[in-house]
Specification:
Keywords: Amino-acid biosynthesis, Aromatic amino acid biosynthesis, Lyase. This is 3-dehydroquinate dehydratase. Pathway: Metabolic intermediate biosynthesis; chorismate biosynthesis; chorismate from D-erythrose 4-phosphate and phosphoenolpyruvate: step 3/7. The chain is α/β, with parallel strands linked by helices and about 150 residues long. The protein has one domain: Dehydroquinase, class II (Rossmann fold). It is about 35% helix and about 20% strand. It has a five-stranded parallel β-sheet with strand order 2-1-3-4-5, with helices on both faces. β3, α4 and β4 form a beta-alpha-beta unit. α3 packs parallel to α4. The radius of gyration is 14 Å and the shape is globular. The protein starts with a strand and ends with a helix. It binds 1,3,4-trihydroxy-5-OXO-cyclohexanecarboxylic acid (DQA). 1,3,4-trihydroxy-5-OXO-cyclohexanecarboxylic acid binds next to loops.
Amino acid sequence: MTTPRVLVLNGPNLNLLGTRQPEIYGKETLDDIINQLRTQALMAGWELVALQSNHEGELIDAVHAARLDGTLAIIINPAAYSHTSVALLDALNTFDGKVIEVHLSNIHKREAFRHHSYISSRADGVIAGLGSQGYQAALDAIIATAKNA
Ligand code: DQA
């Protein structure tokens, strides 16, 4: 049996986690979050591939690659592209697996322009406001759903 794979995509400015507005986004770095997720994935027998990019096209290319390489699920924090990117939504609409959208902060408690996410219309689940625990909950859900499929 091939090892099931999950792709974790993080959008613009999330490379600055830890020092970027820690009162909103927390003190953990993106490496901290990804390392924890990788351990969680490994313990369940999954492979985790992670990409952070400040460039919309690079995130889209990663989704296109995931369509073809057997990736079962995508966890995505599109960051500001949530609120602007029809192109990223269109790319995700070509992906057949599970998609879970994660936001560290509760976007609904913040400025009005953050309340709408283009990505949510494709996402199977949306988690906002749980900080890094949101990514862990998303991965748990993906692993549990695949087990029960
Ligand atoms: C974010 C929320 C977005 O509105 C913002 O642009 C981000 C991060 C979050 O994780 O809370 O960069 O996606």
